[in-house]
Design goal:
The structure is a single chain. With 126 residues, the protein is mainly beta. Helices cover 0% and strands 48% of the residues. The strands form two sheets. Strands 2, 4, 5, 6, 9, 10 and 11 form a seven-stranded mixed beta sheet that branches. Strand 5 and strand 6 form a beta hairpin. It starts with a strand and ends with a strand.
């Protein structure tokens, strides 16, 4: 069993930055890919970024490319999402997710990960 716990959410003004963290326990973290999604009120869950088990091929979706960056520290069993130039439309619950199957896909769908965190709220005010 894999457990994912996000932290780092909160309230920030437009133009600000936040860094989300996700600590993973239960299995060998450095064996699988990690990703981030978000879900805004009344909307579906949206893929944001993914990174391979060894830290190569970090990938961001077009909607956040240039503003959001995913990284990981395998020694700390942690994956990060650095979010810069935040906008009010970035307000959402942010989820980290694990792909223990290592599908090799960069642009994840909802069916790619097999484990999810509980989410952390990010609120961006104008």
């Amino acid at each position: 069993q894999v457990q994912l716990v996000e932290s780092g959410g909160g309230s920030v003004q437009a133009g600000g930055s936040l860094r989300l963290s996700c600590v993973v326990s239960g299995r060998t973290f450095n064996n699988y890919a990690m990703g981030w999604f978000r879900q805004a009120p009344g909307k579906g869950r949206e893929f944001l970024a993914s990174i391979m088990w060894n830290g190569i091929r970090p990938h961001s979706s077009d909607s956040v490319k240039g503003r959001f960056t995913i990284s990981r520290d395998n020694a700390k069993n942690t994956v990060y999402l650095q979010m810069n130039s935040l906008k009010p439309e970035d307000t959402a619950v942010y989820y980290c997710a694990a792909d223990t199957k290592n599908t090799g896909i960069s642009q994840w769908t909802l069916s790619t990960p097999d484990y999810w965190g509980q989410g952390t709220q990010v609120t961006v005010s104008s």
